[in-house]
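Tokens help. Our protein:
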Amino acid sequence: MPEFPPWKRQMAAWTDAAQSRLRQVVSELAARASNTVSSIPASAVELAERARGRGEQVPRAMIGELSRRVNVLHLATKHDVELQSRLGRNRVSFVLTEFLEAQSGHEEALVESLRSELREELQSFAAAVDDKLFAIDEQPSSTDDAEIDLVEDESTIPRAALETTDD
């Protein structure tokens, strides 16, 4: 009969082989896990960036397509209205500025003209007064002024006269 090695030794050899193989597999798994764990944040960031980029591209594409279709229909967009409104405000502002500058020039000319006319009138008036041609006419007294007696001091009026006038 063939001789078999003792089973206890054989079991110990298998157990040692299995344990060494298990250690090797566990160490490989640990290495893979550490690589995977370290690459997860990088891959997650990359995945998030791709998703964000696609999310931004879709609205741009939709906006571009809608803008193209609206322009085909010759409809104004909000941007077009804002642009035209801004241009209109700028035009009105420019016209008003020019108008105000022109008015300011006209006002200055008018003030200077009025000053020179007033100066001439005052000079002619002063010349007339200096030439003694200007005389103040005395106005005749009216009948109403004659009836009114101006009294500076009431003590000179008799008391009886004051009492009769109060009735």
Observations:
- The CA atoms of residues 13 and 71 lie 83 Å apart.
